Amino acid sequence: MAFRWKNTLKESDVTDEALFLNRRQLMGGAAAGLGLAAAGRAASAEEALTPNSWEDITQYNNFYEFGTGKSDPATYADELTTTPWTVAIDGMVDRPGEYAFEDIMKAMTTEERIYRFRCVEAWSMVIPWNGFELADLLDFAGVQDSAKYVRFETLYRPSEFRGQRSGWIDWPYVEGLRMDEAMHPLTLMATGIYGRDMPNQNGAPIRLVVPWKYGFKSIKSIVRITLTDEEPVNTWQQLQPSEYGFYANVNPEVDHPRWSQATERVIGGGLFSPRIPTLMFNGYEEEVASLYEGMDLTVQF
Amino acid sequence: MGFTDRINGFARRVPPWAVYILYLLPVPVLVYMAQTGALGREPIKALEHELGEIALQLLIIGLAITPLRRYFGINLLKFRRTFGLLAFIYVVLHLAVWLFLDVGIASQIWADILKRPYITIGMAACLLMVPLALTSNNWSVRKLGPAWRKLHKLTYLVVLLGSLHFIMLTKVWEVEPLAYMAVILALLALRLPKRRGNQAA
Cα angle vertex B19, ends B18, B20, to 5°? Predict the structure, then answer.
């Protein structure tokens, strides 16, 4: 079911990219004129979110399948072909199968979701995604009662993903969610940004977006979704279990062992962009805190 | 031999200040690039990393000068101080970007220095360079005598810590920081006392 979750913005504020850019310019001009450039960046859960530019979103990100540098995904994006594309849905489902991307799109209703995006490396953006709720896709395949977790897999194709030709990571990239997290209305299967098809560097043609978790949970270019009763071992947890857990909920009070998670830099602010405080569950505390009641988040990070 | 002589002849004619100017040129260029977006969508980290990497390269150049003379007869000794001081300048700039542009929050800076091993190590390397920079003048060399040579052996520790600092900040094992460490270890190995029967030219 689409449109279950309401953006903090009105639809008229968010749909048109030209309008965005215009508004950003206006705001930028006004803020500079009033000397309020820094104040304009302060984030709060209530405040309307101003999305990052298309360039910020598509030219600065992590997608180790294309390389470890932040500009590698944009640089090598055209090496990936995404047609034809199928997503296997298997495991504990009533209707397992290889679903063509086009058929999934026909069955789903996409909508726009403007979410904060917080990388585990302490930088952040605001991204206007297009997509549908994962819950809808799971209902489409028919989840069986025995399923407790959802496991996702990225495409493994070293001929096109140059990053997969190096051996530090046990490809393919794997992520997982607990069933209640997967069924949560905030959890999105994104197929576009700013109303355009998902760019290759951002995880074309279909990716996960879990806005209250660190970005690495939002697995890209998904080819397999498996319903299972075992907690999946996600790639980063497998690589460095002391630094990355299964849950990876954004939490300013639980630091990464090597850096603080208390603050974040909003990308796009240039050379003098200050850090802003990181919000609990990335600002979605009201919506998701109840999922983790009774859990020690310093242990289950 | 002819090649070596030509290099040495050229090196004799190049004044150290020319090397300072040449090697400080990247600073305004990088700041300009950061301002104009040429360093990408997150210019602060990019600038910080570029400055740190140049500092490490300069330390490595300094480390290469003795083996170059010992094994190839190339004499660049007069530039060793130049490269050492340039490395210090770049470390200070790298630190300044981290302090004022990257973190910028006093309490978090202090917490990071104490709690984050890679930052602790980077800070230690930076502080160890201070006495080296302060004694990089002829008066100190004369005044300290043999103690000066001993003191300046700290460079070996500084470059190892700097390289370790680089390795520790990446999320996975990456080739570049490991390559720097390999070069540094090789250059340090070349300084080990020679075995007998291996006469120097």
Answer: 90
Alpha-carbon distance B10 to nearest alpha carbon in chain A (angstroms): 39
Task: Tell me, yes or no, whether A204 lies in a domain.
Answer: yes
A263-266/A123-133 β-pairing? parallel
Q: In this complex, how many residue pairs, one in chain A and one in chain B, have their CB atoms less than 8 Å apart?
A: 61
Confidence band, pLDDT 50/70/90 cuts, at residue A5: confident
Tell whether the model's pLDDT for residue A189 goes beyond 80. yes
List of residues 6+ apart from B53 with CB closer than 8 A: B166
**B31, B35, B39, B42: best to mutate for the A interface, most A CBs within 10 A:** B42
Q: Which of A60, A258, A272 sits opposite B41 (nearest CB)?
A: A60
Q: How confident is the model at residue A12 (pLDDT cuts 50, 70, 90)?
A: very low
pLDDT of residue A31: 40
pLDDT tens per residue, range B112-168: 899 899 999 999 999 999 999 999 999 999 999 999 999 999 999 999 999 999 999
Chain A residues 244-283 within an 8 A CB cutoff of chain B: 255, 258-260, 262-263, 265, 267-268, 270-275
In a domain, B31, yes or no: yes
A97 Cβ contact partners less than 8 Å away, ≥ 6 residues apart: A88, A89, A90, A141
**Is B200 domain-assigned?**
no
Q: pTM, whole model, 2 decimals?
A: 0.83
CB of B29 closer than 8 Å to CB of B61: no
Closest approach of chain B CAs to the CA of A121, in angstroms?
Answer: 9
Any domain includes B11: yes
Query: Residue B198: inside a domain, yes or no?
Result: no
As for the ipTM of the complex, it is 0.79
